[in-house]
Amino acid sequence: MKKDLLSLLDLEKTDFEDLFDRALQLKKRYAQGIHDRVLTGKSLGLIFDKKSTRTRIAFETAMIQLGGHPIYMSTQDTQISRNEPAEDTARVLSRYIDCLAMRTFDHALVETFAAASSIPVINALTDWFHPCQILSDIMTIIEHKGGYRNVKIAWVGDGNNVANSWVNAASVLGLTLTVACPEDHMVTQQIIKASGADAMDHIRFTTDPKEAVKHADVVYTDVWASMGEEDELQNRLAAFDGFQVNRDLLTRAAPDVLVMHCLPAHRGEEISEQVLEAPGAAFWDQAENKRHMHKAILETLILRKKSDE
User: Fold this and answer.
1) CA angle, corner 195, sides to 7 and 55, nearest 5?
2) Residue 114 resides in a domain
3) What is the pLDDT of residues 81-99, one digit of tens each?
4) What percent of the chain has pLDDT over 70?
5) Residue 100: is it exposed, middle or buried by C-beta count within 10 angstroms (0-12/13-18/19+)?
6) CB atoms closer than 10 angstroms to residue 78
7) CA distance 257 to 182
8) Region of 41 on the Ramachandran plot (φ > 0 left; ψ -120 to 50 alpha; else beta)
9) Total-model pTM
């Protein structure tokens, strides 16, 4: 039976562990010049409504390096733009390709595609979740911290799709997570309750970034205005006063704190230039690891479906 990845709540703890192990193995093998062509003859469809650098190129190179073929499709280039029902497009694509990754605004659209498709569907970002990003981010934490257990993670910024996926990951893996957002930009109660985080002591929510980063091993931030919210930026600059991840804020964190950002960054807004350009920063490891994690995801989902046929 095919498996989709629409949010991290679709995964069991063992699924996380398997993906981390395989992604790290694939990264090591690639560095050694070993090319795992396990998806030769397979194809990945990419339907993107939202612009992308890292996610798109990571998926495309991941598929190519595994021996498969990516096919990029802007929504405007498909019959979806002429009001073909999503279900019909999903059924047709299921006859052509082996997996579909979607990057769009409305999470319900990805759910519709998944329900109508006979192939695995991957959420490559929606307004609600960004599951593949967090999988590669935890992989980065494992590399830098030796694991994710007993690691204190602080989110500082907007309660956006990346924050939502951190809450989901924390609920499944038991991560120690503190989320700090302005009151009007907090992770919604719908997301919190759906993950079960409201009943978990190891997941906390606060409006105080200084409290959130206290003794934190990892401090994570993201842009204050996500795609589609750019017209709100001026109002958000005032709302997020005090939430910039800078050297002063980080003095409250652990001495060896790992600072993370999924990029692109707005330098001087959510993160300072000094922090972003600090020697040994992990941001570029994060970006690279998307490719290796996407390999693990694609291999797992596509070969799982093949083995079930």
Assistant:
1) 25
2) yes
3) 678 999 999 999 999 999 9
4) 97
5) buried
6) 15
7) 23
8) left
9) 0.96
